[in-house]
Amino acid sequence: MPPRTYEHPATDEIAIPRVLFALSEPLRLNMVRMLAERGEVDSIDLGPDLPRSTLTHHTSLLRESGVVFVRAEGRKCMIRLRDEDLEARFPGLLGTVLAGYEDDDA
Amino acid sequence: MPPRTYEHPATDEIAIPRVLFALSEPLRLNMVRMLAERGEVDSIDLGPDLPRSTLTHHTSLLRESGVVFVRAEGRKCMIRLRDEDLEARFPGLLGTVLAGYEDDDA
After folding, report:
1. CA-to-CA distance for B68 and B88, rounded, in angstroms?
2. Closest-CA distance of chain A to residue B47, Å
3. Does B97 touch chain A (CB under 8 A)?
């Protein structure tokens, strides 16, 4: 059986309204913060206590908006931030959002 | 009759998830761009062709998220961007988002 593959928008298809929507939900913003700190992780680690359908909903939305890249590795689903693509499209956005969110938590 | 007044979050209550959600809709993003260019305007000018209820929905959401300031002036409802408050809370965010959106349109 071939490995699962996942659809991703090309870098120049990443649109700011969808990125902002993806980042507008605290659960997803926490996932993005975790990815910014850890690099690529098993997607399960982003929400070990979440129902699987909830986790899939949020990671799919992040993937479809161009915020993360997802790939299969055996039975695992590895996920990482598209930080370079986002930086190329919207310089400074991710850093500004994460900094603003850190401040909120403090 | 006293003039209508509008509720606004204090600057330190402005939260990044709500701001990102407010900016994640193309219609609202266009309104914000217009306000960034024009300063304070009659809110009608933000969507002269929109149903009044649609216009009110979007301007209320922008106001409640801390993106705009609204005040009554006679029968008009004047609206302006809280650009200084947003800059104080999330330095660079508004500029980055508007620049990214301009690029998309080009």
Report:
1. 14
2. 19
3. yes
